[in-house]
Design brief:
By secondary structure, the protein is an alpha+beta fold. The chain is built from 15 helices and 21 strands.
Length: 493
């Protein structure tokens, strides 16, 4: 991964300090230990830290277009850049490097903000367009690459991580309590919010255009298809084809590529596709210790998969020492994140990083193919909700009597929470019949009060328990669901 950062002042006579941009880049050094590049000219300063993967020797950033009027800093990988590059050359562009970053810049020359539509990959980028005096920011469709933004009367600043904006003194660090409230319910802070009221995230699948003589324009260029799509004649074959094609695209690299292998379906499929693409995969598997380690041990499955596909397998023993591990993880994550799998992932990544810069994982497979237990719960809830309310309340009350197991497993706890929370649930409101949040596409005309110039955003955000005794129902705590934006706010229970 790489890191990008920058600042543009609205007053063109106000000079950006090179030391300021360098300080932002220093805060991102862990993202890009191989190289640093700056462009500081008058009221514009761009910087980046690079982890060299494609065009290792010739892909230094920032990169300019032919006449020097536009400049880009880029974080990520564009998997179809070779096809796009050929088209640019055929149309007369001069392409000096052989990497993917310059390809994006020339596409911007041709298509402006629509350049992202043809990109296949994970990315966050910034392009300063000097003639138009605009800053263009973009983030990939699923938000794999982060991008934080501060807009104010003085101008705009951006960075791959929150700590870079803090290092430059560009945020007041006033906590956004609505965002933290969402964190305690969801386990993360969803975009566009951040922990601070004056810092926003560019949302996945969005572009942002800042104009020196205007405001900020946000545009969604992609969204997950909202309606059911017709299935192909042979869906299983089509899924395998798409997976093999995707893995092959991710193997485009000028440095070796490894893989994380848990023994589960998703990472096993990735390693199998690597082998089918003609690679000899080097897979890394975590072996845990402590309570519940036996049930979590998938090394035998990983060995079987590695043997079948001729992969080299390295087993990494995970013995986390919280005193040595916790602080570095918190510093790297940049904002609250309630997923304890970050600890073994961190330790496994440390072991892999001693030999590789790139590793493929199966992350995202459970979300795409409903692999989590919560997905089973959603299906079960549809049928459970059809039972009489009295029977559901009785089941919820009886679930309190189920003893917790002593082996540290969470199956019984999940069952009890399902029965308790669903005992009176009806509709979105969990007790409020037929209650619905505002539609996702609801439009708002009121400006946001927390971030000057930032477009209004409707967010379907939080669910929380009421803390007061008077809010208790016969079967436990009531739910509160809230949605909030600049022009309407509602709470229901």
């Amino acid at each position: 991964m790489c890191g990008i950062a920058g600042i543009v002042y609205r007053d063109r006579d106000r000079t950006v300090s090179e030391s300021l941009v360098r300080r932002m880049c220093t805060a991102l050094r862990q993202r890009g230990p191989d190289d640093e590049g700056l462009h500081v000219a008058g009221a514009v300063g761009l910087g980046m830290r690079r982890l060299s993967i494609i065009d290792v020797s010739g892909g230094r950033q920032p990169i300019f277009n032919e006449d020097g009027s536009k400049v880009i800093v880029f974080n990520g990988e564009i998997y179809n850049y070779r096809e796009l590059r050929r088209g640019l050359l055929e149309r007369g562009h001069t392409v000096r490097s052989s990497g993917d970053t310059e390809t994006v810049l020339h596409l911007y020359e041709e298509h402006g903000a629509d350049c992202v539509s043809s990109l296949r990959g994970m990315f966050a980028c910034a392009i300063w367009d000097e003639p138009a005096e605009t800053l263009f920011l973009a983030r990939d469709r699923f938000g794999i690459k982060p991008l934080y933004v501060v807009t104010a009367a003085w101008g705009i600043a951006f960075a791959s991580e929150l700590k870079a904006l803090h290092a430059a003194g560009l945020t007041s660090r006033e906590l956004d309590w609505e965002a933290l409230d969402a964190y305690f319910q969801l386990g993360y802070i969803p975009a566009p919010a951040s922990p601070f009221v004056d810092v926003r995230k560019v949302e996945p699948g969005h572009t942002l255009v800042w104009r020196r003589h205007g405001g900020v324009t946000m545009r969604r260029y992609w969204q997950f298809p909202p309606h059911d799509q017709p299935s192909p004649p042979d869906p299983e074959r089509r899924v395998r084809e798409l997976l093999d094609e995707s893995v092959a695209a991710h193997l485009v690299s000028d440095v070796p590529v490894a893989a994380f292998l848990s023994g589960g379906l998703d990472s096993s499929a990735v390693v199998a596709s690597m082998a089918l693409a003609g690679e000899t995969p080097h897979a890394f598997t975590a072996r845990y210790s402590g309570s519940g380690a036996t049930t979590a041990d998938e090394t035998d499955l990983a060995r079987a998969l590695a043997a079948r596909h001729g992969a080299e397998l390295t087993v990494i023993d995970i013995h986390p020492d919280i005193r040595d591990t916790f602080e570095p993880i918190v510093n790297a994550l940049d904002e609250p994140h309630a997923d304890d799998s970050a600890i073994p992932t961190w330790l496994l990544s440390q072991a892999v990083a001693s030999r590789y810069k790139v590793a493929l994982t199966g992350i995202g497979g459970d979300e795409l193919f409903a692999g989590y237990r919560r997905h089973i719960g959603l299906l079960a809830a549809e049928h459970y909700a059809k039972l009489p309310t009295g029977l559901r309340r009785l089941a919820g009350a009886a679930s309190r009597l189920i003893p917790e197991p002593r082996n540290g497993t969470l199956g019984v706890d999940r069952l009890k929470r399902f029965l308790l929370y669903r005992s009176t649930a009806r509709g979105y409101g969990h007790g409020s019949p037929g209650a619905q949040p505002p539609p996702a596409s609801a439009s708002c005309s009121a400006p946001r009060a927390d971030t000057p110039g930032w477009p209004p955003v409707c967010t379907w955000t939080t669910r929380r328990f009421s803390p007061t005794t008077s809010s208790r129902s016969a079967t436990g705590w009531q739910w509160h669901i809230r949605w909030r934006c600049a022009c309407h706010s509602s709470t229901m229970s």
